[in-house]
Design a protein that fits this description.
It contains six helices and nine strands. Helix 5 packs across helix 6. Bound molecules: S-adenosylmethionine. The site of S-adenosylmethionine (SAM) has 22 residues, from helix 3.
Length: 234
């Protein structure tokens, strides 16, 4: 019995998920292709990025990157709502990358959007330089074990990102991470950000203690030598 359960969970269910047809989420006329098992919240709370960035007064940027993009709900929404002119997306899951590429084809965005299959930033070419980085990355070090969408073992995915992102930032470039207070607090990341030679420029909507229910907060991060633009202060 246990043998068949293992076969079902490890092989049959993933194969069936793979065969499922794409669903579509539409943002200001841009149709984003996805499969439900690739959605890490980008189609729901991830859309809060739009009012958060608008509320801070962020002007349109030339190029944005969505780290841990999944199907790219957040990045494509930034593009659709006119918050970025062009977009770069990357994810380690080949199924998520395939969904992003389908959206690019379906919306004829080849000239404005680049998609990379990459473990963290490993396969991102040096020529990729960003004004804005957004992400809803895996949020938990101690739950969702083994699940790409949820689990960041020993925060190694975050640490790897902080250590690699600075060389892809344009002068004045800002990183805005959406984190979950049920899995972390701003303090969880402060030392790793400093060790990577970056600084926190704003914290928004955070509680100092881990919460029992999911509650999203935002961390604004920059290179220490760069002056934060008005929208990323405080
Ligand atoms: C919380 S989900 C978010 C997905 C999507 N951004 C959204 O908002 O729905 C986290 C994403 O991180 C990706 N991921 C996990 N580890 C990664 C790594 N080492 N490098 C790149 N992407 C990774 C997963 O494949 C997943 O798509």
């Amino acid at each position: 019995m246990r043998f068949w359960k293992t076969i079902e969970h490890r092989h049959i269910k993933p194969a069936l998920r793979h065969l499922r047809p794409y669903a579509t989420a539409t943002y200001a006329g841009l149709r984003v292709a996805y499969k439900p098992h690739l959605d890490g919240g980008g189609s729901s709370f991830g859309q809060d990025f739009i009012p958060v960035l608008r509320g801070r007064g962020m002007p349109k940027v030339a190029r944005a990157f969505e780290w841990c993009a999944g199907p790219g709900f957040i990045g494509f929404a930034l593009l659709a709502h006119g918050l970025t002119e062009t977009l770069c997306l990357a994810d380690v899951n080949p199924e998520a990358v395939a969904a992003c590429r389908k959206t690019v084809r379906d919306n004829a965005l080849e000239k404005r959007v680049a998609v990379y299959h990459s473990d963290n930033l490993e396969n991102i070419p040096a020529a990729e330089q960003w004004d804005l980085v957004v992400s809803n990355p895996p949020h938990f070090v101690d739950s969702g074990i083994g699940q790409l969408r949820y689990h960041d073992p020993d925060w190694s995915v975050h640490r790897g990102f902080f250590g690699a992102v600075a060389r892809h930032l344009n002068p004045g470039g800002v990183i805005v991470l959406q984190e979950n207070n049920a899995g972390s607090t701003p303090d969880t990341f402060t030392a790793m950000i400093a060790e990577a030679g970056l600084k926190v420029v704003f914290v928004q909507d955070a509680s100092a203690q881990r919460t029992t229910q999911s509650h999203m907060f935002y961390l604004g991060i920059m290179r220490p030598g760069d002056t934060p633009p008005a929208w990323a202060r405080g």
